[in-house]
Inverse folding.
């Protein structure tokens, strides 16, 4: 996985946001759970994917970070990090899917 973060950058007195890489080529495990959700008219079932990343606790991932995960089958997932839960041996990061690709 690679992790990018939006930071403020001031250029000629104007503050702009810039996406910078903070982690690259980090091993992780991606869990994807599909949950059926009935549509508003009750006739169709929509699948919602729930994404959870597992990685080492020493990696500093913040809510809102952009995470790109490429699976062993070369499938690319672009995710937005939620609030990580850091444990002694691992951290669990709930994510949502990035729709503006």
């Amino acid at each position: 996985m690679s992790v990018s973060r939006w930071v403020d950058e001031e250029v000629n007195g104007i503050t702009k946001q810039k996406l910078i890489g903070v982690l690259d080529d980090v091993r992780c495990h991606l869990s994807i759970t599909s949950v059926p959700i009935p549509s508003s008219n009750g006739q169709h079932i929509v699948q919602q994917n729930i994404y959870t990343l597992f990685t080492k606790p020493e990696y500093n991932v913040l809510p809102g970070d952009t995470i790109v995960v490429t699976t062993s089958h070369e499938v690319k997932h672009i995710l937005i990090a939620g609030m990580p839960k850091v444990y002694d041996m691992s951290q669990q990061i709930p994510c949502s899917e990035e729709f503006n690709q």
Summary: The mean pLDDT is 90. DSSP finds no helices and eight strands in the chain. Residues 2-97 form a domain with the Thrombin, subunit H fold (CATH 2.40.10.370). The CA atoms of residues 4 and 21 lie 4 Å apart.
